[in-house]
């Protein structure tokens, strides 16, 4: 499997997360003057977006991300986004975080699946980055960070072959295999079937570099074309107009990876029986993963090194609900099917002396300034954090 | 990957992975050979794996690697004394597929064809020392799968094209705009010359290969198309040597679909 997949996975999922958060924040925002202390305003929204994007494109984090490595497990990756979503004054309950992650992953899975050429995965990533740059267009500092990452993407992926891109795509598809969560906006647009599987169109433009199917040409020994025949199928393909741009700025042409949410279209997911094959899901690894400890130590180190901003003024963070009402959110938490829970890793921080030493070292290095209930000490917070992972 | 390698004296089950190559007796009971891949041969960020398996020359099993090398294993009639007899070094990109002649090759037409990520194909004659007969240059698209039948190389490409080449000379004899997406699988039914192609565009096509005895032109005609709705086809194989039925697998699909002529 490709060791260059993680940056693409992280950036695209991050992009989807920002689309969804932006939409929810806009939907729930109140004009500044009229807002109560605990209601969202436009200023709050911009701030949350800025904070998350700043954290996401942190230089050190990006450096680590771009090193050749295997993909994180689903659990480990989910933890990263958990932390990312809480990089600002915004708070999400478990149910809302679950829903956010479901939406992010299904959206990117769709984009990878429908990606015309393996290389177009890069265009999808660029679409996300273009949108992110737009979110922070009036903050030159953060804009610079994003541009840096853009350049690094071009440098790392610019000269990969189609075969290497296909390997990356296959690595991603394996990561998303068997996920069939139904997303309301996809179902409405007839992009997803009621069984959770995506609709693969057999019409439309063919990928750049591909010919419309149908023509057979025969050549003689001298290389002259001597015969032409045609065959027909149910497919209805057309020639594409132009190729998307792989430069820092340009028309990507491809629509995959652009923001499909708008304030008027609510984002919902359906939880019931999305996969008939419950048995196959239950096969999820229950045996302790020896690498889990390694992954989490690494993550803890990375995330611990980042500054978490303190909410100005008020002590408590603002809670964002991804559902329409608080009751809905609570109901979702209670009724989430077992097989769809993002199983958490239980870390025993007590046993081996070596492990204890490792963890203490990390705890010592970490600096977190998060709003917590009064009385909880810094060390306790972090341990609670890790135990809760 | 997994493949049966049928040799005159025995049948081996060969498996490839990111760590190396395993060979088992045909019932899977005993592992007769293990070959670990040399990680140091690859630049640091590049994936390491073995891909492409074929039995050739009645005596050898050839396996491709991500570095472009093709390992040739000499297989004794029985026992575990398998050795690497040769390493073929013509490819500079990861091997995608390897195929052995499945029909009756005209003289000098070659026993084996190897394909790589860049789209380059090599035709070999098998023996104590493998000899390169022809090298078919890439045209800009990955050659994802390849088959060899009656001296005709059938190659499936990432841009959806199927091309037929003369194995002995490497000359292009036919070009088919077959699929709208990456071709994942090709198979040939040796007794009839039927060709099966499966791609990410959800389509599986059945073609017929033949040679016009008068003009000596290679012919390919379209026989049948099957759309596996909403499925990216990853594997397609004939279930019988005449090509009257075939099986299909796809991404996110836990079933194998089998199609038969009515």
From TrEMBL, chain A:
Domain of life: Eukaryota
GO cellular component: cytoplasm; plasma membrane
InterPro entries linked: OSCP1 (IPR019332)
Protein name: OSCP1 protein
Any single Pfam family the record assigns to this protein: Oscp1
UniProtKB/TrEMBL annotation, chain B:
Recorded superkingdom: Eukaryota
Pfam families reported in the protein's UniProt record: WDR54 (PF21031)
UniProt signal peptide: 1-16
Swiss-Prot/TrEMBL WD repeat ranges: 176-217
Gene3D superfamilies, per database record: YVTN repeat-like/Quinoprotein amine dehydrogenase (2.130.10.10)
InterPro entries per the UniProt record, alphabetical: WD40/YVTN_repeat-like_dom_sf, WD40_repeat_dom_sf, WD40_rpt, WDR54_beta_prop
Keywords: Repeat, Signal, WD repeat
All copies of domain WD repeat-containing protein 54 beta-propeller, residue ranges: 1-260
PROSITE patterns the record matches: WD_REPEATS_2 (PS50082), WD_REPEATS_REGION (PS50294)
Full protein name: WDR54 protein
Organism expressing this protein natively: Anhinga rufa (African darter)
Gene: Wdr54
